[in-house]
Amino acid sequence: MFRTSQQRTSHHYWQVLAIASLTIAVLSFVSPQIGTLGHGLRTALPALAVAWVAITRLAPQAFWLSFKRFRSFFLLGCLFLLQATLRFLYDDNKLDLFDRYVLNPLTLSFFLLWIGALAELGQKTLNRFRVGILFGWSLSLALGVPELLANPGVAKWVMGNVDAEQNASIYAPLGVGSYTTYTFLAICFVPMFVIIQKVNSTIWRWCNIVLLILASLGVFLSTFSMASTLLAISIFFALLIWVMMAHGLARFGRCFILLLPLLLLPIAYHYVENIPQINDVVSKVERLYGGIRSAGLQEGDETERGNWFIEELEAVIENPVAGYIPGVVGMRDNGHSSLSNSLVLFGIFGALFWFCGLWKIFKDSLRYSTHEIEKYALIIAWVVLVLSGILNPTWHSPAIGAFLALTVPVKNIHSTKAKYA
């Protein structure tokens, strides 16, 4: 049945509304400016409500189909949330853990349901949604580069101290984000790089490339060493994917382009080493490498994270099944590793609910990826996500919603083939 002009206009209106509202909801947890408007949920919840109406208007069964698609995750997630609620609901001293391990995973579950529903609208709609996130996120962080250059270390002022909220209200509108924002850009860099290749307009593609480069520079200037390290890993693999996307002489040319900067890296470093933030990150990585190599993880890690990780693993050995029991077993959680924190708090049995839930999402995404390059990008992104969760607390953050938005594919593999440059 052919649509009338009025029906096509209405369909386009609801599609734009669905994409825009869901984009705002996702960006509310990774964009400094949007996050400041409503502290995450206050922005995300109204945006999700609008997206619900728009998506349902276009495809009444979309949310039901999304729920069926990820039902195993929602089942495991409910079991995890039940245990987390029993752990922290009646523990007055652990309300922050209730937010992290109950409210944040619940928010992530909503994002998965909504993203799966939007994916039911087809590949073109999903591509536009992803480009919107790519552009909005990159632009948001690119605006912070001048402030980061002017004030070394300013990114750390908006988190982890008594004045964090006040500082965030000042610097977040300027594009300066917190640790989570920069870390998830590092995690999502490879999927974002692949999404750029799908943009048909050459001008629009280069606009996104420039913004992504500036956003990446913001990560390095933030002085968060782990985020910078993860981004360096992601950039390396993104360039390898870029080479693999070419054929014949074009691939040879891209190999040459890739090797040339590596050969010139010592010269380039000579010019950037005087930038305080980059010098701080490099110096810290060098000190950590030298200290751990000479004195071991427990004593050689100047950040104390190695020592904390070992302490937490010792606590897991004491209570491997049940984990932390309020009022019975003393909690030894330092909040610096999703892996060890989850095992300490919930035991092996409880933590497996969440780990297996994430594994289910990965399997689904890998199954329905439509292109070999897309599969490579997905695997690399998940490997970086796993590394980040071992070394830092990222697995229970609602910012994973941005990661899922950039990696969860359309379920119908015969719908629309992705186009690559």
Helix content: over 70%
* Morphology: globular
> What is the succession of H and E elements?
HHHHHHHHHHHHHHHHHHH
The main pleated sheet reads as: none
Structural class computed from helices and strand pairing: mainly alpha
Q: Got a strand count? A: 0
Poorly predicted segments? 413-421
Q: Mind telling me the C-alpha Rg?
A: 22 Å
Mean pLDDT figure: 82
Q: Number of helical runs?
A: 19
**How big a fraction of the residues is strand?**
under 5%
Our measurement of the CA-to-CA distance between the termini, rounded to an integer number of angstroms, reads 33 Å
What does this structure look like?
By secondary structure, the protein is mainly α. Helix content is 74%, strand content 0%. It is built from 19 helices and no strands. The C terminus is likely disordered.
Chart the SSEs and their pairings:
Blueprint: H1 5-27, H2 32-38, H3 41-58, H4 62-69, H5 71-88, H6 95-119, H7 123-142, H8 145-150, H9 164-171, H10 179-196, H11 202-221, H12 225-244, H13 249-263, H14 265-272, H15 276-300, H16 305-318, H17 338-368, H18 372-391, H19 400-407
Helix pairs in contact: 1-3, 1-6, 1-7, 2-3, 3-6, 4-6, 5-6, 5-17, 6-19, 7-10, 7-11, 10-11, 10-12, 10-18, 10-19, 12-13, 12-18, 15-16, 16-17, 17-18
